[in-house]
Structure formats: structure tokens, C-alpha cells
Design goal:
This protein has 655 residues and is α+β, with helices and mostly antiparallel strands. The chain has 16 helices and 24 strands.
Length: 655
């Protein structure tokens, strides 16, 4: 028995030993497993992002880029403003934090070492061009009872009030990961003494891209960049009620002068051109090449998908004798649709709808191919035009602006014009597209929504596609006995030398069928005590005002030159202007509304010439000059001014 008992106990002990070993093994295995799991999720870099008031900022984009491999890693801050990167490869990193409403911040040389956590905290400062989302919410709560409807139009993403202790969340609108939008610097035209500089010469401009781009900013609760505001494009976004031209002239000229709304000691001159409207049956056939950017940067909903909808609208407006080709470019350029009659509309629409975004942007190669296709299908006495739709981000192939400009100028001389449509935000290249359109005898639009596409391709299609006069230049000679100094409002990148006016080899702007062109001059009357910088007296000649100038009632003489679309020699029109001392209240709707738009542009640019203009005076002027507004564009302008006024009141209280 004892032997059996002893054997039993030994067996039991052996079992316990085995169980212990097994348990230990399982425990060790579990620990090893947990260890590996923890290692796989080990934090390499973390931190907190706060604003200048010490408030955590959620939803901030944090980007860590390995300086050796150039590989980027991305994450976002949580509700407490905390971010963390797990298992970053060992190395040196540059770290960015970016958020709409704030200035981007970069920290270089962050050292990531194995088994150690690097901590980098950031403080974000509010961007002066934007309104803090928290401030938008705060303002909405304060105005809830008295301005509920207005505030909801300003902050569409924030709905409902704070009731029953429920706190409303601030909605941060997302921007693309990288904001590389580019705008050419604008140096505003200054006052020039009429006695020393009697001639002012410029090319007309019918582009409207700046206005719709500015509208995009405002509708996103932001103030636009100052250099995104081109006042002449804002003014010319709107049509004006000018008379149709008489006889064989392609356009009429209308002039008006009255008190300047933002500086009552000055006068304001309004100049309007009205292009002849063409009947549908008289429209020449079109050879259109749609050059479409399908690169990866075009993938967002406000780019390629909107582009596709826009061109469906265009195809529906074209006639059966018109022809359409489609060229696309991404990593390489290719012909998607050979020249096809619009009578085969289904084939054209199908080709548009099959497009997908992906790859880098070989814009130069795409433009080359598009011009080749346009030339192969050239229609004599027809409308031969390339319509380029892009965000302007050319980064592969022939990408220098000067190289593209030379090519576009060469084809312009062969009768192939260029229209450019801009899409999207974040990497938008405004300056480049404006320059290319100007050199291509075309026009430039920014499509921020489907209604803008309808305006360009449906409401204004004849003016968009059909040129009735090219190389249109204006030269004003001011009477120094009536005008001490003058300033052209806008048109800074359209200024010409006085010698260019009579030089038919110098390119200038084009006027489309039915289009209007408007320009404003602010003048300081003769005899004003206002100081204007001039030049020293000349040694070898006298610059004196002729006695005849004092007897002449003309304040200026306007001269205009233009060519027919296929012409090489310009024609001259001369138009004098008298000051009839019409008070502002008695001026036309054209005068009042264009002045309101100009004043708004100067306010957005914070122009040194804005005088004492304010939102209320702009609104009063715009409402008084609203006139006929069949499509509601002027009503929309008034709403934008109201919205900016509200945003400015928020900004003035501090971010």
C-alpha cells in the first residue's frame, strides 16, 4: 500500500509539475504575445496642439516626413488636441500641423529613436484671412434670436441652437493636406498727374475667374487672399444694360461721370462696351478640343466630377454642325475622343463620363496634343478653340509658364484660341492660368459650383465661345485743365505702354458676342489741393497746359482700337466725354452697381484708396443699382457683401 501511495503521490506531483510548467509556458507565451502587440503599437511621437489661448484644437492634420526616405505619415488630433504616431521608423523627421483658420506650423529635426517617445507640442495662431470656427459658433449663439436666418446662411454646417445645456460643436471645414494656391502679386494702380501723364492705355479684360473664386472663399467663411481679388474681373462678372451697337461696329461705347461714392471730393468715370449679340443661325461652326486634367489632384468632388457635369451642359448647348474632340492628361497625354460631330452627342457624353482621376500632371504635353488635334480639324472661318479645364497644377513635362506661353502665342496667330476653366482649391494656380488664357486670345473662368458652369456654358455661351473683336485697346487722353490726377481701378496686369496703342503687333483682349466690358477711373478734379507725387521740373522743355484746354468742355477723349477676329489691321473709334455734373443719385443702375462692386473689391484688398467706404454704403449703392437681375447674380452679390460684413464684425471682436 505504501508503495502504491508513494507512486500515486509521485504521479500527482509530476502532474502538478507538468501543469505548472504548462501554465508558466502559457503565461510566458501570453506575455511574449502582449509584448509583441505592445511593441507593434508603441508610440514614437506624440504631442498636443493648442491655440494661442491654450484651448485644445481637434481635427488638426499632423504630418511627419522622414527627411531621408521622404516617406510621410499622417494623423489627426483627437477631441483633446492630442495626436500620436505609432512605430515610426528610426530617423530624423520634419513635422507639420495644419488646420483651416490657423497658420501652418513646422518643426524640423525631430529625432525618432527606437524604444523612446518623442514629444512635440504645437501652438497654432489664427490666420488673419480666416475666421476661427469657435468664433463663428460664438457669434451665432449671440445673434441667434435676432439674425437666425442670416447666421445659418453664413455657417451652413452648424445647425440648431444650444438648448437644454447641449453644447453646439464647431465645424472645421477641411482643406486639402497641402495648401499651395498661387496668386500673382498685384500692385494697385496709383494716381498719376494728368499734366505729366495725359495718356492712360490698357487692354480690355472679360475674364471673371476672380469673382467666383472670391465667392468660394466667402462661402467658406473666409476672407480671400488680397491678390486673389482682381477688381476688373469682379466688375465684369456682371452684365450691364448698354445699348446694342449701331451700323457695322462690333460694339457700342457708353460713358458716364458723377461723384465718387468712397471719396466725395473725387469724380468717378464709368466706361462701358457692349458687344454685338449674334443670332444662333449666324453662329459659325465650332471645332472644340476639350483638354481635361485627369491627374490625381483632380479627384475631389469639386474638380473632376464637377468638370464632367459642366461639359455635359456645354454639349447640350452646341449645334449639330459643331465638332468636339477630347484630350486628357495625367502622367501622360492621350486622345480620348477624336473629332466627333455633336449629332453623335451620346458618344461625346459617354467619353466624358468614363474619365477617372489619377497620376501626376503632364500639362505641357496635354496642351501640345490638344493644339495638334485642333489644327488637324481646323474649320476655316469657324470657331477653333481649346477649352482647358484644370486646377493649374502642371508639374510634369513642359511645365514652365514661359514655354507654354510661347507655344500658345504661336497657335493664336494661326486662329486657334484658348479658354481656361479653373476648378478646385488647395493647389489652385490662379496666376498661371490667367496668363495662359490672356496669351491664347481667350477667357478665363473659375467654376466653383454647377450654377457657375451653367452661367459660363448656357447663359453666356455665345460670349464665352464666339469672339467678335480681338486686340481691343483703350487709350484715354485726360484734359489737364479739368483733371488734376486719375487712377484706373483694376486692370493692373492689362496696362500697356502708350506706344502700344497704335502698334498692331501688340496683343490685347478679346470681346465675345453679347459680352459687356466695364472700366472705372477715379479722378481728382483740376484745382484740388490734394498732394499727388510727381516729377521734378524738366530742364530742356516746358510742360504747360494749352490755353485751349481751359476753353474745352471735354474732360477726356477716349480712343479705342480693335481688329476683326481674322483681321490684322486695327480700326479706330474716338469718343469724347463731357462732365454734365450729374449727381450720384441720378446716375444709371450701371454706374451705381459697378461702383458698388469696385468698392467691395477695394475693401477686400484693404486698398489704400478705399476712402471711407464701408459695408453699409456698398449695400446701399448695390441695392439702389440692382436694376434688372434676371439670373439673380446681383442679388447674390448683395448677399456676399452682407456675409462679409458679418464675418468682419466677428473678426473685429478678436479671434
Amino acid at each position: 500500500m505504501e508503495v502504491k501511495v508513494k507512486n500515486f503521490k509521485q504521479e500527482e506531483n509530476m502532474k502538478k509539475t507538468k501543469l505548472g510548467i504548462t501554465a508558466i509556458g502559457i503565461l510566458i507565451g501570453l506575455m511574449l504575445f502582449l509584448g509583441v502587440t505592445l511593441a507593434e503599437n508603441a508610440v514614437s511621437l506624440e504631442g498636443v496642439v493648442m491655440d494661442t489661448k491654450g484651448v485644445a484644437v481637434p481635427g488638426v492634420e499632423v504630418i511627419a516626413k522622414n527627411t531621408a526616405t521622404q516617406v510621410t505619415h499622417r494623423t489627426k488630433t483627437d477631441k483633446k488636441g492630442h495626436y500620436a504616431f505609432q512605430n515610426l521608423p528610426i530617423g530624423i523627421y520634419d513635422v507639420w500641423v495644419m488646420m483651416p483658420g490657423f497658420q501652418a506650423v513646422k518643426q524640423t529635426g525631430v529625432n525618432i529613436r527606437g524604444g523612446k517617445v518623442s514629444v512635440v507640442n504645437f501652438t497654432l495662431q489664427f490666420d488673419g484671412n480666416m475666421i476661427s470656427p469657435a468664433r463663428l459658433v460664438e457669434a451665432e449663439l449671440a445673434e441667434e434670436k435676432t439674425a437666425d436666418k442670416m447666421m445659418r446662411s453664413v455657417v451652413p454646417g452648424v445647425q440648431g441652437a444650444v438648448m437644454g445645456g447641449v453644447r453646439k460643436e464647431a465645424h472645421y471645414q477641411r482643406r486639402p493636406d497641402w495648401n499651395t494656391e498661387e496668386y500673382d502679386r498685384i500692385y494697385e494702380n496709383r494716381f498719376l498727374l494728368a499734366q505729366q501723364n495725359p495718356l492712360s492705355t490698357f487692354s480690355i479684360d472679360v475674364d471673371t475667374a476672380s469673382y467666383s473664386n472670391v465667392r468660394r472663399f466667402i462661402n467658406s467663411n473666409q476672407f480671400p487672399y488680397k491678390d486673389a481679388v482682381r477688381i476688373e474681373e469682379m466688375i465684369n462678372y456682371f452684365s450691364y444694360d448698354y445699348p446694342q451697337p449701331k451700323k457695322d461696329y462690333p460694339f457700342s461705347i457708353t460713358t458716364e461721370i458723377s461723384a465718387c461714392p468712397w471719396n466725395t471730393s473725387h469724380r468717378l468715370i464709368h466706361i462701358g462696351l457692349q458687344g454685338k449679340t449674334l443670332e444662333s443661325k449666324k453662329l459659325p461652326p465650332s471645332n472644340l478640343v476639350l483638354l481635361l486634367d485627369v491627374s490625381g489632384s483632380m479627384g475631389s468632388p469639386n474638380k473632376l466630377p464637377l468638370l464632367q457635369k459642366a461639359f455635359r451642359l456645354l454639349v447640350n448647348e452646341l449645334g449639330s454642325n459643331d465638332r468636339v474632340s477630347i484630350v486628357v492628361y495625367a502622367g501622360a497625354a492621350g486622345l480620348v475622343l477624336p473629332s466627333t460631330a455633336v449629332s453623335q452627342k451620346e458618344a461625346i457624353v459617354s467619353a466624358i463620363e468614363r474619365l477617372n482621376a489619377g497620376g501626376s500632371t503632364a500639362g505641357g504635353a496635354g496642351i501640345k496634343l490638344a493644339y495638334k488635334v485642333a489644327q488637324e480639324n481646323f474649320i476655316q472661318e469657324g470657331n477653333n478653340r481649346i477649352i482647358l479645364a484644370t486646377d493649374g497644377d502642371f508639374n510634369v513635362g513642359v511645365s514652365s509658364t514661359s514655354e507654354l506661353v510661347r507655344m500658345i502665342e504661336d497657335y493664336r496667330k494661326k486662329g486657334i484660341f484658348l479658354t481656361i476653366l479653373g476648378f478646385g482649391m488647395g493647389n489652385y494656380k490662379d496666376g498661371r492660368m490667367e496668363q495662359l488664357a490672356d496669351k491664347g486670345n481667350g477667357n478665363y473662368f473659375y467654376i466653383d459650383n454647377l450654377m457657375e458652369a451653367k452661367k459660363v456654358f448656357v447663359n453666356d455661351m455665345r460670349g464665352t465661345l464666339f469672339t467678335i473683336a480681338k486686340d481691343v485697346k483703350l487709350q484715354l487722353e485726360f484734359n489737364p485743365a479739368k483733371v488734376k490726377a486719375y487712377r484706373l481701378i483694376g486692370y493692373e496686369n492689362r496696362m500697356l505702354r502708350k506706344e502700344d496703342f497704335a502698334d498692331d503687333t501688340k496683343d490685347a483682349g478679346e470681346l465675345g458676342a453679347g459680352h459687356t466690358v466695364t472700366a472705372l477711373y477715379e479722378i481728382i478734379p483740376f484745382g484740388s489741393s490734394e498732394e499727388i507725387p510727381g516729377v521734378d521740373e524738366l530742364k530742356y522743355q516746358d510742360n504747360k497746359i494749352s490755353p485751349k484746354a481751359f476753353k474745352n468742355k471735354e474732360i477726356l477723349t477716349l480712343k479705342l482700337r480693335y481688329k476683326k477676329p481674322d483681321g490684322k489691321k486695327s480700326k479706330l473709334i474716338v469718343h469724347p466725354l463731357l462732365d454734365k455734373n450729374v449727381i450720384l443719385a441720378k446716375t444709371s443702375d450701371n454706374f451705381k452697381f459697378s461702383a458698388a462692386v469696385a468698392a467691395f473689391g477695394m475693401l477686400l484688398r484693404d486698398s489704400e484708396f478705399k476712402g471711407d467706404v464701408g459695408y453699409e454704403s456698398i449695400l446701399e449703392l448695390a441695392r439702389d443699382g440692382k436694376g434688372k437681375d434676371f439670373f439673380g447674380y446681383r442679388a447674390e452679390f448683395i448677399q456676399l457683401v452682407e456675409k462679409c460684413s458679418l464675418l468682419d464684425s466677428i473678426r473685429s471682436k478678436g479671434n
